[in-house]
Amino acid sequence: MISNILLYTMIAAVISFALGQKLKAVRWSFSALFLGYVGFQLYGLYGQWGMVETHNIFSLGSINFSLNFGITKLGWFFAFFTTIINIMIWIFSIVKNMNEKEERGINFLWILLAGSNLAIFFSVDWITFFIAWEIMTWTSFFIITPGWKNSFKAANWYFILSMFGAYAMLVGIWWLYATPAIHTLNIASSIALLAKLSITAPGTVGIIIALFVLSFFAKSAVFPFHPWPAEAHAEAPDDFSPYLSGIMIKYGLYGILLFIVPLFIQIMKVNPNIAMVNGIPVYSYILAWFGAITAVLGTYLAIVSNDMKKLAAYSTVSNIGYAVTSMFILSSAGVTGGLFHVVNHAVFKSAIFLSLGAVKFRTHEREMHKLGGLATKMPITFLTFLLGIIAAAGIPPLNGYASKWIIYQALLSGHFPFLTTMIFLASTGAFLYLFRALHSIFLGQLPRKFNNVKEVPFLMQIPMILGILSMLGIGYAPGIVLKPIGLAVKAMGLTPMTVENTLMVGKLSSINTAVVSSTFIGAFFFAFAFYLIGKKRHHVEPLDNYTAGQDPEEFGLTPELYHFALKFYEPVKNIFRPIEEKLNIKNYYRALVRNANSFGATLSEMFKLSGAGSSMIFVLGLVVIILAGWML
Amino acid sequence: MKSNYAVLLIAIPLLVAFLQPLFSLINKRLTKWVTFLTIGFNFIYSLKLLNYVMANGAQIAIIGNWKPPFGINLYLSPFSMLFATIIYFVALIVLLVYLIDKPTEVDDRMSIATLLMVMASGAITLTGDIFNMFVFVEILSISTVILISFNNKGISFKGAFRYIVLASLGSSMLLLAIGFIYGSLGTLNLASIAYRFNLLNPVYASVIVFLFMAGIMVEAELFPFNAWVPEAYKGSKSYLNALLSGVVGTTGIYVLFRMFITIFGSGQNHIQVIGSVNFNAVIIVIGVLTTLIGEFSALSQKDIKKILAFSSMAQMGIIAVTIGVANMNSINAGIFHLINHAFSKSLLFIVAFPIINIVGSANIDKWEGLGRKNIFLAIAFAIGSFGLIGIPFFNGFWSKMMIVESVVSAGGWMYLVIGTILLSALVETFYFFRIIFKLFVDKKIESTYSVHIFIYLAILILSIIVIYIGIKPSFLATYIHKAAIDLVDKSHYISTVLGVIK
Amino acid sequence: MIVLKFIGYGFTAIIIGLLFMGIGRKYTARIQRRYGPPFWQAFIDVTKLFSKQSLSHNWIMDFGILMGFAGIVGTILFMPIGPWHFFSLMNGNIVIIMYFMTIGSLGMAMGVSASGNPNSTIGISRALTLMVGYEIPFVIAVIGLIFVSKSSLLGTMVSLQSGGIMNWNIIKYPFGFIAVEMALQAMLGEKPFDVITAPSEIASGPMVELSGKMMGLAFLQHAAQIFLETGIVVNLFLGGANNIWEFFLKQFVLFILSLTVNAISPRFKFEDAVKWLWTWPTVFALIQLLIIILT
């Protein structure tokens, strides 16, 4: 069943590629429809837990390579939700790609990517997982950079860090396999065996965990791998950014939920002499701190960026930070909160990126200070973005709130005051950049060149409206997502949180989201009653106001001049400048790349020596080898 | 089937090579076709032999009815026949391109050199006599020099000169080693050397191994004996580089495999500690250094031939590591990777040939926009690179997986080794992806060069192989499995050649 | 019934808030040796504003200001006012309160920045930055209280403080109170933290484009905000109250304290304000938190 779906995906990719250069709309509609079919099939797979399909590839020596697909609760959950979001994005892509040159190749790769997306979530052994992981990495690389020079530089950030992670995982996988006490490639049994091994050989287990964590962190852009999303998201095609941010960056988190978190939970159960902090293993606590640092760092970097897609990308980084911190708390609420936040983030961040894509579709601008005042021109886009940022900021009654609430429950009931503070700092900082984006793009002054900007076509509005509805829906009744999450959490060996459709019960307090939502609506009507008092409001053009009715042109006033958007948070930057100058991870990476280049250049000089030089190397090398061979 | 006819694999090309001047009197282009057909015969015949030995086990071909250890024999085993077949195959594909390349003044001499080179490589894999091997290595070196320097340009001479200096140094080392062996063991037959090698004084034996290693590592492109590689590749034509890498390099590594595992190795446990020297470690260090140097050097290059040259060097390094690790999985992995590398790298070199002609430069910066002019070539290049860097469902993926597995399972300081190799692999992935990216940059290329159907054919065949091995590696796995068993089974080797030893 | 209760909550907050504002103006004037306006001046102002013509640049401006007011009123429903409480399940859920409150800030910010005036936008950017400044010490102090009361409900915290002044958190956790009191000064936007409005720098900041009932709504929002913020601190540290009058009194004490500081302080430079909030109150809050964790 699963392998059929994957096979169909490949066939669909080929068909879609064969559709020729002219049939752009047909191609993208076809792929969206196909994905709809996949979603339908996945829905049908609900409940068939434990089903496994095995396909032998070959065996050589003592290893047997096979592809194993199975349905786990966590995997199904991820597969289903990511597919739904992907459908949303592809509806957007239909119109977006009408005038794109590179869309054919992108579509081909993207369908493959969607297939590997499913394969990641359905693989039950490490080889399959790794294969899917690799395919996902290279297809996305070429989607991010379909022959555009700027995006190539950006994609390299993504690619190098991802590949680094992938290789770390590869070593980890084979290390698992080479350890006699484990010697399995099956994910589930490797968890159980590793947990047992942690009693006798904590060092080995620690290193294996570290290798996997490196890989997952690199993919999910957790500190110190946080620089890549900003680069890659910003330069990627505008319809791919939502996918990158909503779905792809979650693979690392999926890996953590699939492997690291259950492993820690198992270790806590079977290993009595593991060092603990506040009831969780020290390793877990340290990793939670990585999440918290990511959250704060992402927030700060988002605050100081002027590029709207970079801003949203850093916001993604910081949201990943919340989820990571929450997951490593290892409590039921923590894992639920992290998982729920992953879903919520996927929803609202895709909505945000879609609206940014819509803005760019109409204006072709990415730098925020060049935009402004678009709210009245593009109301649906504005509304999507507004609700998106409300959700992202964790303001009730939208969905982001529900998951943040659970995260706080987890952190507070687990007694992690400093982690809570970090998360809260990041979360409050989120208002800064989110509002800045709202203001600079949609509010403020409308530059004259955008006077004729229109709302995007209806087909592009549909996914945005769907986004709005799902944000409101999940915010009103988080239970619809929390119930399947409960199943996945239960499968990890935790007691799931008590939830009903609109009720979440925590250890410190409980919350009825329906009541919260209706409170907001009630309060709004209350305020509206006041608004109705008195005379009707009077519309005035902004510039007229400043010149007391005279011609603004005579004063040299232009809307652009009055749009305060550049260096919006200069004071914040000033406060952090001393730290930023000293601790810029990006510079370290750049230096690393520079050094690798010059290292290579130096080495290759060796091959430019003359014949005499070459023979010298030959002889000297031989002598050194012989001497070293004897000495060691 | 009489295995003695296997000698035709050497005799016919040799004979044809001598007759080439006659053919060239008729038409110089005819010599190309003759070469092509001869190699074609070799390929088909060796394929037949391969299947025969796969079914019936290793055979020997006795030359002149002199029984080994006194006479010269060919050893036809799954391992040697597999590589002979692959060498002939790669050469055949390369010759497909050579056939339709622009006619030049020196076509007849080129044909002879090519024929001799392929013949020598095949012979090296098949021979069971160490002096014979030396002779063929010499022939290989000389013909390679001719190939490199044929286009009469300064850069070719530079490369060729460097190659000949190093190759002669290497040959003298080989000759010294062979001299020592003969002096001490009184035999030149590989099987009887294998049989009696551990009787030698360990210090003496380790000197022999060192010298032999240095000699053959010149062909195997391993550091520090590979200073010829980039310039020689740069000087010759791109498709001929496929011969350098796919034939010469493969042969070099083949010899390393055969000598270190079967002949010098101590039988089943494959641990080659001779005297106080741990040769496993020596080879691993050489391999890792070669990989590191190769990949990082390639990173800084702009010339596609040099990039691919450094990359071949690095891949040879990785394979050398598997020889050093020397457990069953690593030998399987090494053989597998050597085959994969031969196919993928040849594909890349052959694809580079029309691309260089279209773009008019081997500088990858000038390649921008090629994918928009000729998507087929761009995709083929991508397939070759994917095969090489090991993208899933391309051939290199499985062998790299196996290499990582075998190296990691060796444990200890091998973690450092695998770390270095993967770091280099990261670099390799990066620079190949950089080239693929450049191919798809939106830029117009003006060119009137039209790609000949034979080139497309060659590219198509190799691409299909690369993908087919990636999707269905199991068909190759049976060959590799038998080859590896043949390789490690020292006593079987000895008894096959020398008969039952009393 | 519930609607009436709702309206009652809203009006209580507004009336008390406006009253506080009026008294506050009188009080400040007396400190500064002026006569000052009558204490009902705030009511007069609001009435006048609602009767004037109001200018607006676009619908988002109206919408934002409505949302701002609604956010604060909505938040007040979650706060226990003496014996009154609106919800029993979420009686003062502090996490909800803190996030719901931001609807107010966000709405206000959206409304005024839709007006397009750079002065108001600068004001907003300062307001948001300052928010990060004061929320950190505030949250650290609150985390401490949540730990000791094992609940994030203000209602539970209040009931734990019942039974005399010695049970009040202000006595038990004085450093926390100091931190929160300092943060409260910034929350209320009083000197030395009045960088948001800063009349002499950015012409009243956010308010600059508001007129008529827009201004009136902003005024009401401010009144409700005073009520809300002082109310939270009363619930957190001053033991809540048994009846609403006691509650109002405690709020008033806090407000007067803040006004006193306001009347005699100069204004911080903006960056310094944030830095100050991240040093002194944060240090106090951390000391309190450490004491709580370690004991």
Tags for this model:
heterotrimer, A: 632 residues, mainly alpha, 2 domains, 3-stranded antiparallel sheet, two-stranded antiparallel sheet, 24 helices, 8 strands, 70% helix, globular, B: 502 residues, two-stranded antiparallel ribbon, 4 strands
Residue ranges of chain A: pLDDT <50 for 5 or more in a row? none
- How would you describe the shape of chain C? globular
Mean pLDDT over the full residue set of chain A = 86
Poorly predicted runs of chain C are none
How much beta of chain A, percentage-wise? 5-15%
* Helicity level of chain C: over 70%
Terminal CA distance of chain C reads 46 Å
DSSP summary, beta strand count of chain C? 1
Instruction: Give the H and E element order of chain C.
Output: HHEHHHHHHHHHH
Biggest interface and residues each: A-B, 70 and 83 residues
Sheet bearing the most strands of chain A, described?
Answer: 3 strands, antiparallel
How would you sum up the global shape of chain A? globular
Looking at how many chains there are and whether they match, the oligomeric state comes to heterotrimer
In DSSP terms (H or I, runs of 4 or more residues), the helix count of chain C works out at: 12
Gap between N and C termini of chain A: 56 Å
- Provide the residue-averaged pLDDT of chain C: 84
Strand order, sheet with most strands of chain A: 5-6-7
- Count of domain modules of chain A: 2
Characterize the structure shown:
The complex is a heterotrimer of chains A (632), B (502) and C (295). Helix content of chain A is 70%, strand content 5%. Chain A has 24 helices and eight strands. In chain A, strands 5-6-7 form a three-stranded antiparallel beta sheet. Chain A has a two-stranded antiparallel ribbon with strand order 1-2. Chain A has a two-stranded antiparallel sheet with strand order 3-4. In chain A, helix 9 packs antiparallel against helix 10 (240-246), helix 11 packs parallel to helix 13 (308-327) and helix 15 (379-392) runs parallel beside helix 18. Chain A starts with a helix and ends with a helix. Chain B is mainly α and 502 residues long. Chain B has one domain. In chain B, a hairpin with a 2-residue loop joins strand 3 (273-274) and strand 4. In chain B, helix 1 (8-26) packs antiparallel against helix 4 (107-126) and helix 2 (28-56) runs antiparallel to helix 3. Chain B starts with 7 loop residues before the first helix and ends with a helix. Chain C has one domain (2-294). In chain C, helix 1 (2-31) runs parallel beside helix 11, helix 3 (59-77) packs parallel to helix 10 (212-237) and helix 8 packs antiparallel against helix 10. Classes of the chains: A mainly alpha (632), B mainly alpha (502), C mainly alpha (295). Chains in contact: A-B, A-C. At the A-B interface, strand 1, helix 5, helix 6, helix 23 and helix 24 of A face helix 6, helix 8, helix 9, strand 4 and helix 11 of B.
